[in-house]
Design a protein that fits this description.
3 domains, Dna Ligase, domain 1, 5-stranded parallel β-sheet, Rossmann fold, alpha+beta, 14 helices, about 425 residues, single chain, D-amino Acid Aminotransferase, Chain A, domain 1, 5-stranded antiparallel β-sheet
Length: about 425
């Protein structure tokens, strides 16, 4: 069968890479994909991105099922449109995707269903928002209500940073419609964890645990980013904590959506924080796989992803079982010069050719592309085209060994102004440095 993956990032590269490994899958199309997906056997990029064009393509090519990677198509109602066209697609409907699209919706939903999260208030008036910060003090968190491509969350460690964030969103309107309404919530101390599941509307299949690193610099310093690296499994999630996350967070979400008449099918990402007193609170929901968490998770997955997705679409995830490589996986993001504020494009990436040759002989690592394109002098060089450029992902018998393997490979990649953290995985390797 032929499959279609929507998106252009590292998450979509990893999903397509895993899907094409299935003996059931003849070809995977990625719309629009990146320079990395063009190099994979059995994967082909599409230049189309408009929903009507994608529907026409899926019908013409007899696409068995479509998998949605990023949030924007979900917000635009791609799942609803495919359903109307009687096409199989894995992802939540536009209404269900409000869990990510609207912070206000998400917070109110959690309150209705008693799902623990940070205390908050919503504002459209900058004066009232400034007064609230003056009353609460810092640290405090400012969030754009809508989708802001990873730029909508400011962890303000001082009141001046919080006030600047309010003005940027509500007065200067630097985030456009996404920042016309904001959420200001309490700052929570603790360890962050990414918990990702597949849902079929009633049943849930948890994927391997993971943790990403949001801050740009070592030691979780610097500005927030879309993620500078991730690893799996998150060793501090004990079986007991795993069960609590399912009971206190995941099942209430799926059951709550069903109770409100909005069945949830698709990947669900819960960004959580485990507080020092061992409480679990939700930082955010994403209606998709995380990036860069997808990369190490897919490297560890031994089951046929296409089968798991079909089971989800058939409502039989209660009969599904995911098998995992017992080794750990760790991914290091290499980012462009100027990321996250103003990433530079068109820098030629060096060192990929030798790694690509090595990839053909081993399943112990993979270079997943995010912000890459073909260009340069002859139009065939791989160049930077976005903020997060590559995710070098490797397996190892422990997090420490996976880390060593991944950095050994990442150090062979170079382009002008490239930047990466040197401590991905330190929460598990050196827990006392948290």
């Amino acid at each position: 069968m032929k499959l279609l993956v929507i998106g252009s990032g590292g998450r979509e590269h990893a999903l397509a890479w895993k899907l094409i490994q299935s003996p059931r899958v003849l070809k995977v199309f990625v719309a629009p994909g990146n320079a990395g997906t063009t190099q994979e056997r059995g994967i082909e990029n599409l230049s189309i991105t408009a929903i009507p064009d994608l529907i026409k393509f899926a019908k013409t090519e007899d696409i068995a099922l479509t998998i949605v990677g990023p949030e924007a198509p979900l917000a635009d109602g791609i799942v609803d449109a495919f359903h109307m066209a009687n096409l199989k697609i894995f992802g939540p409907t536009r209404q269900a995707a409000q869990l990510e699209v609207s912070k206000d919706f998400s917070k109110a939903f959690m309150q209705r269903h008693h799902i623990p999260t940070a205390a908050y208030s919503g504002f459209s008036d900058p004066i009232k928002a400034h007064h609230y910060v003056e009353e609460k003090g810092a640290p405090i968190v400012i969030k754009a209500n809508g989708l802001a491509a990873g730029k909508g969350v400011i962890v303000a460690m001082t009141p001046s940073i919080a006030h600047a964030a309010i003005d940027s969103m509500l007065v200067e309107k630097n985030l456009g419609d996404a920042g016309m309404h904001i959420i200001i919530e309490e700052f929570l101390q603790g360890v962050e964890v990414s918990f990702i599941v597949m849902a079929d509307g009633r049943h849930v299949l948890p994927l391997a645990t993971s943790q990403d690193h949001k801050r740009l610099l070592d030691g979780d310093q610097g500005p927030n980013t879309g993620g500078m690296g991730a690893y799996s499994p998150a060793s501090f999630i004990s079986p007991e904590l795993h069960a609590r996350i399912m009971q206190e967070i995941i099942y209430p979400v799926i059951n709550g959506m069903a109770q409100e008449g909005t069945s949830y099918t698709g990947f669900l990402y819960a960004g959580l924080i485990i507080t020092p007193d061992n409480k679990i609170k939700v930082l955010e929901f994403n209606c998709r796989m995380g990036d860069p968490e997808t990369q190490p998770i897919m490297l560890r997955l031994r089951s046929d992803l296409s089968v798991l997705i079909e089971q989800a679409l058939n409502g039989t995830l209660d009969k599904a079982k995911a098998e995992w490589d017992c080794r750990a996986a760790l991914g290091i993001v290499i980012a462009a010069h100027g990321y996250p504020e103003a990433p530079r494009k068109n820098d030629v990436i060096r060192g990929l050719t030798d790694l690509n040759l090595e990839q053909e002989n081993t399943k112990d690592f993979h270079v997943f592309h995010s912000g890459t394109a073909l260009g340069g002098k002859n139009g065939k060089e791989i160049i930077t085209s976005g903020g997060r450029v590559l995710c070098i992902t490797a397996l190892g018998d422990s997090i420490k060994i996976a880390q060593r393997n991944a950095y050994r490979l990442a150090d062979r990649i170079d382009f002008n102004g490239c930047q990466m953290r040197r401590d991905i995985g330190y929460h598990s390797i050196n827990p006392y440095l948290k």
